[in-house]
Amino acid sequence: MKTVILFVIGILLISGCKNTQKSSNLDNKGIGPIKEVIIAERIDKTLVKQGEAIFKSKCTTCHHTDKDFVGPKMAQITEKRSPEWIMNMILNPEEMLQKDAIAQELLRDYNGVTMSNQHLTQEEARAILEFLRTL
User: Fold this and answer.
1) Which residues form the Cytochrome c domain (predicted)?
2) Taking residues 20-44, what's their average pLDDT?
3) CATH of the domain at 28
């Protein structure tokens, strides 16, 4: 009985740590020009189309939507990272990789392959973000 109780407590502690990690990842806004992003509850379909086109032309060399590739898959990324973090990573990858703990962890996980700066505008990055919200 004592073993079962200790096992249950251990599982609860591990579960709590994972939730804390997820929460802190969503609180991290990254480093760059984006300090706050206002996200409407509804998806902007026009913005999604623009973002999908930009994503296909600029990002698919390294990122797939449904599986890891050269870089991480994008499916459900908006559940793991804050909108500000995503946009700052798109707009400011060099500094993010130097100073942001999550970006540095991803760099290690993906064999030191750095994300290229595509020199997108904030509007283009916002369109990509809207597209990523649909994945």
Assistant:
1) 46-135
2) 86
3) 1.10.760.10
